Amino acid sequence: MNTVITASGLNKRYKNTHALDQVSFQIESGRIVGLIGPNGAGKTTALKAILGLTDFDGQLNVLGLDPRTQRNQLMEQVCFIADVAVLPRWIRVREAVDFVANVHPRFDRVKCETFLARTKLQPEQRVKQMSKGMIVQLHLALVMAIDARLLVLDEPTLGLDILYRKQFYQSLLEDYFDENKTIIITTHQVEEIEHILTDLMFIRDGKIVLDADMDAIGERFAEVMVSADKAASARQMNPLDERQVFGKSIFLFDGADRAVLEGMGEVRRPSISDLFVATMKGTYA
Amino acid sequence: MKTFYWLVKREYWEHRGGFLWAPIVTGGIFVLLNIMGIITAEVFGARHGLMIGGNNELTQLVAKANAGDLAQVGNALDLAFISSMAIISVVLGFVVLFYCLGSLYDDRRDHSVLFWKSLPISDTTTVLSKVVSATVLAPIIAVVVSIALGMLLIMIFALVLSFHGVSAWQLLSQAHPLRATISLLCAIPLYALWALPAVGWLMLCSVWARTKPFLWAVLIPALTGLMISWFGIMNLLNLSSSWFWTHIFQRILISVFPVSSLQSYNIDVESFSHVHQDGPLALIDPIRIYSLLASPGLWIGVIAGAVLIIAAIRLRRARDDS
Lengths: 285, 322
What we know:
Number of strands of chain B: 0
Mean pLDDT of chain A: 88
Structural class of chain A: alpha/beta
Strand content of chain A: 25-35%
CATH superfamily of the largest domain in chain A: P-loop containing nucleotide triphosphate hydrolases
Number of strands of chain A: 13
Radius of gyration of chain A: 21 Å
Structural class of chain B: mainly alpha
Largest sheet of chain B: none
Largest interface: A-B, 35 and 23 residues
Helix content of chain A: 25-40%
Shape of chain A: globular
Largest sheet of chain A: 6 strands, mixed
Number of helices of chain A: 11
CATH class of the largest domain in chain A: Alpha Beta
Helix content of chain B: over 70%
Number of domains of chain B: 1
Oligomer: heterodimer
Number of domains of chain A: 2
Radius of gyration of chain B: 24 Å
Strand content of chain B: under 5%
Shape of chain B: globular
């Protein structure tokens, strides 16, 4: 497996916030990485650094290129969807396809038209006449027809209804993703991407606070539902988080002994959103 | 090269309204006004019994006219041709002005810049495609439209005169539509050079301003000019403050208007007598227009424009708006 992104010691300061604070990570080919963090944690800055859209200090290598100086070559291999409103409002479906087909060396027009045929989009339709969901369908059709090695999605489904959101991720998985491609996603709708991620990164105040693949997370973190009489002993084991449901306590543990936990109650793999809430406790306080 | 062609095409798609329809609509209105004028004149003439064509007086007039008089008729038709160009050139000036101001600002405002930047196109190519759209594409369309408009106007006048029994072809042969067309086409490259400092300045404001690029583009030079006039700073350099207005203010804002280059020729008594002798087309004669190439002012402007455009490319790369 080859490495798609290597970052070490990334730093980026805005006036009085540290958007990136000594960030280091590696992303391998064929992974779907969720980059999750609260508002203002530095997610978008990290993505912008990868895409060469912002300046920063530190070492960053994307597909063997430096995004600061080799952006144009990099963009042949990298695609991104920033959020729903980025297609120009005046452009027509036909024009968008024509344009990308003629400026992008790795664009497959037939593929794009196949994707578009599955939607209600008409060639003469302008972006300003489309709903948000349709704009994303167009953008996704354009991007999926590009044979890129890295796809960056920054809040791609923001403001879409659940039908469009499901369809979006389903198309990505069925028609796009393979072992030669890598996808990085940031989103606040964590539950929806939980089952498609292979890797998870939590970012908080410009620092990576968790970076693991999903199997490792299942082994490392555990959630136990404990009845009231055993709650005190569970509390002694230093849980990350505790919450009450129907008179029982649910504890979230990081690296606790499985056997002990199973003695206390039903052990489950925690959902990413519960893990996220526990990890980010006190962020806005 | 293919990418560049498609980038210019994209600009055309986005700005079809300004590049194509603005000159066409203006031309249409101009034709309409002329037709209304002709109808008014005809009605007025008929009411007051001034039907000169009816008893073939005009025909006789033309028959009796000597060569000089006929040349005057030709000049009048050329003037009709030139006036249509003048009107469209003013429209072109406004179109280019606002196009440049929006060129690197609009896509940042609606965030579509992120889409354009997700494609493998360098900022240099993008900015240059916009410069070419402003200085070559827009003027070519305007020139083609004004040629069509000029021809249409001459046809209309000839048609009206032929109703009065005057041989239209005899009159038309006195006009010089071909010469006017060639002069106009020749003027495009010079316009591109002349407009470059203004295009550069406007695009720099467009890429730099966070909001209201128009205000910045106008306010900065206008306030600077006022300060200079007020405090007489230019006197320190042995220049009058009007030097600033003509050599800086006009060149970075007004130069997008094609006619603005005319004022830098010495329109003295001598050149007016030229116009008198050679007809109105002497105003846009290529030899006369290209005499501007000998003036250092043009070339200093071109260099300044290039520097401003390079600065715009740099800023386009560095701009980070979130």
